[in-house]
Amino acid sequence: SVVGPTGSGKTTFINRAVGSPDAAPGSAAFTKEVRPVRYPHPDGVRNIVLVDTPGCNDSMTDFQVLGEIARWLTAIYAKNINLNGMLYFHLISEHTITETTLRNFNMFKELCGKDNYKNVVFVTTMWDKVSKEVGLEREQDLQSDFWRAMISSGSTTRRFERTTESAWEIIN
């Protein structure tokens, strides 16, 4: 499942992974419902399902988003389908942790549960919007503070560079 705030690059990530074109820059094409995308894994043996999820924005509250995700998870668990991992997207260009970001992250932690932290990958995006030095400093701050508890329980971090190769490095 691919989760994170509105505009953090979740849909772009999925589009890059499966070779779909991006929406026009500046368009308001935000994901409004849980959207699974099935795609053959390059190993030729299995399929993967990337699950695009809504972010919180002016049109959807935190609770509406959480409700959408919870309904979808309930439906797939009823079919005996389990998630192998969760990707949490974060804008490296965001210079502070806002109240909304903190609230979204806390909801995400609750959604995952401590036993599943090992299946979480924190994905930083928008590296082209900051200098390398600034990005590295923010990444270090996130790893040593904001995400520290989850990382110490097995979560990992990766950078999404807006390429197909970068998307597949994260998926694999």
- Sheet having the most strands: 4 strands, parallel
Radius of gyration: 15 Å
Distance between the termini: 14 Å
> How large is the count of helical segments?
6
Strand order of the largest sheet: 1-4-5-6
Show unreliable segments. Answer: 24-28
Count of β-strands = 6
Secondary structure: helix percent: 25-40%
Question: Mean of the pLDDT scores?
Answer: 86
Order of helices and strands: EHEEHEHEHHEH
Cα shape: globular
Structural class: alpha/beta
- Proportion of residues in extended strands: 15-25%
List keywords for this structure.
four-stranded parallel beta sheet; single chain; 172 residues; alpha/beta
Describe the 3D structure:
The chain is of the alpha/beta class and about 170 residues long. It contains 6 helices and 6 strands, in the order E-H-E-E-H-E-H-E-H-H-E-H. The longest helix has 17 residues. The protein is globular and about 45 Å long. The two termini are about 15 Å apart. About 25% of the residues are buried.
What secondary-structure arrangement, pairings included, does this model have?
Layout: E1 2-3, H1 10-18, E2 35-40, E3 47-52, H2 62-78, E4 86-91, H3 99-112, E5 120-125, H4 132-146, H5 148-152, E6 156-159, H6 164-171
Parallel strand pairs: 1-4, 4-5, 5-6
Antiparallel strand pairs: 2-3
